[in-house]
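To assess whether ligand presence alters the predicted conformation, the chain was also submitted together with magnesium ion. Input:
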Amino acid sequence: MIIVKTPEEIELMRESALIVSKTLGMLAAEVKPGISTLQLDKLAETFIRDHGAIPGFLGLYDFPNTLCMSPNAQIVHGIPNDKPLVEGDIISIDCGALKNDFYGDHAYTFEVGEIDPETKKMLNVTKESLYIGIREFKAGNRVGDVGYAIQKHTEDHGYGVVRELVGHGLGRKMHEDPEMPNYGKRGRGKKFVEGMVVAIEPMTNLGTKRIKQLKDGWTILTADGKPSAHFEHDVALVNGKPELLSTFKYIYDALGITSTEEDEFRQ
Ligand code: MG
Ligand code: MG
């Protein structure tokens, strides 16, 4: 059952989305060779609590940390550890926070120093596919329209679209209806309605779409060991159009990047 939000609830969700956005922005300045994912996790936990929120993943389904930290061939749900990041790594950081009983859920794949051009291109295409998907989250469209658009852009570049993990409705629960796959058929699935809030989150593999899971019961990684990227925004359907609640602005500020990519999703 899709739980639509009132305009007041969407404003509360914007607060939660801003906390996770600012958390990733804070981390953007810290991601560099030598720092461990566990150190980054502790920084994030303190930051989230200092902003009057609760880490959204810590304890959720018994996940042990604040952040999901998935380097290189890890796709999602990696567990932070004390191994330092090294030059050339990529690190997908997924961050959840709960404030005013509503969740924010936001992810970005960071470059650690200089990375190889092939991987860099995959990061760009994955982020492009995120916005291409968000554009389809509008009145009259259905879940399959978003999935189709993301899948087409990704596969046109020869990359693998992960099937087993999907985006989702977001609200008082981290995972609400509907599931939002990053693949699909035009015109299929549940219809979008005013006041919906979803997390759209393409997970793209440089090679095969197939995955495997580590024995830790959490970490999902590519079956062929090639790198994978993950970008996630929280989006509300307002006035029939997609409105971004989360923002990469704080990350871009930290990295000195100028971007207009989010402008079309502001009302
Ligand atoms: Mg997430
Ligand atoms: Mg999510």
